[in-house]
Amino acid sequence: MTSKNPVAIVTGGSRGIGAATAKLLSSTGWNVIITCSSSIEQAEDIALKCSEQSSEVIALKADVAKDEDCLMAVNTAIETWGRLDALVNNAGTTKFAWDHGDLAAVSSEDFHEIYSVNVIGPFQMARAAKEHLLKSQNPSIVNISSIAGIKGIGSSIAYASSKGALNTMTLSMARNLGPIRVNAVCPGFIEGDWLKNGMGEERYEATKTHIQNTAPLGKACSPESIAEVIVGLIEKSELVTGQLITVDGGVSLNL
User: Which of 159, 211, 244, 248 is an active site residue?
Assistant: First the structure.
């Protein structure tokens, strides 16, 4: 039986942007599958909190770097609800090595691991989802990239490189997968524990304060503010494809 509700998959949905996106989609009547590679208990808690009377959120343990897990996530959506309308490629990883000039700080193994999740993962998810998305009336893929992939900054040179590759892949997919719309959202600094843990609390708070004092809009991004952009692209932007949308309060204007 095909669900009357539209259906989305959000990878990396146990926290941050993924969790905020699942919650917002659910609140507007979407059924959602959220995936995570390790913290399944946290993902299940998010799914329970996100589910509404009129919509359902399911948590799955799936590693997007593994093609079989990508196929499993898509197949679960189809077996459960009979359709797929949107894919949000949010799962990501990094190695924190802030000095990009210190080339010894990252190894080839670091590059392989980061690319396997940040680039190959979205490709495999899109490949698994394509035939089902094409049956939707308004199919959409949103890749969660980063300002790091545009400006060559961020947690490490490997991370910035992977997000640059994701941006290029977004353009290629948008050109060739129509009528599926494919866009990338490129956030700047995002408030939350993931970045705080990676930066250290002192650096995190100093960076946040600097953004609030110098950014044109005077505020840092929250997961919820990014989720609003993602859901807007999915639900309302029927003629927008192949776009790299920076969401950073104007921080990058100062770079």
Answer: 159
